[in-house]
Amino acid sequence: MTTPAIARSVSALRSQVRAWRQAGRTVGFVPTMGALHEGHLSLVRLALAQADKAIVSIFVNPTQFAPGEDLDRYPRDEAGDLARLAALGTHLVFLPTVAEMYPDGASTWVEVQGLSQGLCADHRPHHFRGVATVVTKLLNQAQADVAVFGEKDYQQLMVIKRLARDLAIPTRIAGARPCASRTGSPCPPETCTSRPGRGGRPPPFTKCSRTRRLPWPPVARPRRSWSRPSSGSSAGDSIAWTTSSFATPNPWRTWLRRVASRRDCSRRRMSGASG
Length: 275
Known about the structure:
By secondary structure, the chain is of the alpha/beta class.
């Protein structure tokens, strides 16, 4: 077991990445907030499988916590995290301070419109602005070939993919379903789409959402109406069509209701077959 190198500054991180690049190595990156569990470690394994070198960042980002939330109570276990990453063969761990990530006078924010609204943002309105800002900074600092994020928070993954595309960040964003083994035993990357306790079978939600190809995100379609010509109009007047656009009250919630409905149908079919 080799202890991974530790970088606590952006300059040290970029210096190591530059050396790898000069040697012709590819770089994978997994951003985390620490307190690593098997789900995180499965993402690190995927990064190691997709690149020659793997970087894991550990930074509890204060800007995605609102006042009164659990920032101070968020679990921190640097020694334990380093031991787990060393066991996997991680090459570099980036451990920046808040001052390193947000220097005095920092006033720039990244906010993704549309995708950052609804669902989680209804309860934590500033959450995705903090996430988008810190992920943009981390991707720019690490300059990796591929960055691996979990699909557990799918809305967050879509926000990150959009910001990377809109800001022309060259890092490829890879979404992966984390494998969180309840027994603590390692899960190989090829089984990370399965949920524990199901004998290796994908859950109905995964099967349904992947095979039926639900639209993402939902699109509000225009509504058309028509009116007859008035009694005083000439015979040559045509029927008047009017088009009015309308907004879905909450397209994310509508989409989730559709997914939940199909998931329930799938579960009923499975329970009927097992009975």
